[in-house]
Amino acid sequence: MTIAVIKTGGKQYKVTVGQELNVEKLEAEVGAKLMFEPLLIADENGEKVEVGTPTVAGKKIEAEVVAQGRAKKVVIIKYKPKTRYRRKAGHRQPFTKLKIVKV
């Protein structure tokens, strides 16, 4: 089994074939194929490791968009004592669910 590290949305993710993961929202339709350039590729034992500068040349990670969605609501409360100041707001972060097809 091969392990790779990809970068998307300002974050890095360790991925393997068949894995599903939520990443920052990408502008892509459900079912679309996306290609990522790996920063690192290794086998599961860590014996054969390819490190990119900054990416591994000639290698691609293929992923399929499974769903577009929004995460659970996070409630934000601001409160200052003795001043009658209260604010309550909510936020739902959009995400894209990917399935790694090929490493």
Automatic annotation (TrEMBL):
The lineage of its organism: Bacteria, Candidatus Falkowiibacteriota. One of its GO terms (molecular function) is rRNA binding. The keyword Ribosomal protein applies. This protein binds to 23S rRNA in the presence of protein L20. One of its GO terms (cellular component) is ribonucleoprotein complex. Part of the 50S ribosomal subunit. Contacts protein L20. Keywords: Ribonucleoprotein, Ribosomal protein, RNA-binding, rRNA-binding. GO terms for biological process: translation. This is Large ribosomal subunit protein bL21. It comes from the Bacteria. HAMAP family: Ribosomal_bL21. PROSITE patterns: RIBOSOMAL_L21. PANTHER family: 50S RIBOSOMAL PROTEIN L21, LARGE RIBOSOMAL SUBUNIT PROTEIN BL21M. Belongs to the bacterial ribosomal protein bL21 family.
